[in-house]
Amino acid sequence: MKKTTLITTTSLCMLIGSQAVSAQNITIIPQLAVQYKNLDFDQKIKFGFKPSDGSGTRERLNEDYTGGFEAQIPTLSASLTGYYSGMFVTLKYDSNVTETQTDSTVGFTNGPTDVDRSDISLTVGYNIVDNLNIFGGYMRGQTELTPEPGYVDDIEGSQQFYLGCVFSDDSSIPCTPPVFSNLAKDHEILGLEPYKQEYEENGWFVGASYGVALGSGNLSFSIAYALMQGEYRDNYLQGVVEADSVFKGDSKGLSLGVTWREQLSDTTGYFIDLRRQEYDMDADDEKGLLDNEFGVPLFEKTETEERMTTLTAGLHWYF
Questions:
Q1: CATH classification at residue 216
Q2: Minimal CA–CA distance to 36: which of 261, 271, 274, 198?
Q3: In a domain, 1, yes or no
Q4: Residue 188 lies in a domain
Q5: pTM for this prediction
């Protein structure tokens, strides 16, 4: 599968900016902020190939399926930076404060879906000249989708890949058309944990930022690039049969940001940050689930693209 990966590049280097901090003492800078994130998520699922008919032409089991969603995610962000003699280290954590529900057409979600997003990163940077900083670090991000249980009767538009209900001797479970359960409903019927999809990326990023003093504040611009490992997994029928999915692959991303910072006192300041992040991940099927008719892997890979625009406002303190 190819999967979109969401990466978070930290704005630690902009904490220092043009504020006057001693080059000979360690300065501790905690930061607390709220964020408004708009996440635009697109996914393409590629089916496997039918066995060769000897002609050299390979035909897929089915056409590629594309789906997605858009969600507005309220988020709380906290970080802690240590600064000494031009060098800084920052630990940062972002997480949504409440679940955000949206209508999703991502494969196997098929309707109202709760979206959760969290990121953690460790960044090391250095102020090489005046307001120019370089930085690099390691991050891990995770997007979790939890669709609502339900029945669907529009297979083409609502239940793209599921050809029937969970097989069971329980006559109360509908197993024939025109009634089909989505994967979340299967879990509810069987008394399993809620059906979830998890998209995770982790790896390294590098970047730079430059600040310009304007009046009593500082305007900074930043760019960062990330190369990571990505993974998609779900928990379908875990504990009942071997039906859950795992896809792994490479992920890459680009982040562009602009930040305004201004001091409120000798030890306190505020900032406003606008950031655009675009991430792509290619992930291949690790489980090799078989198609009953042809005996070949049902899904080959997934391709995901995530575009995230984030507006952040918060306070930072110097100690």
A1: 2.40.128.100
A2: 274
A3: no
A4: no
A5: 0.82
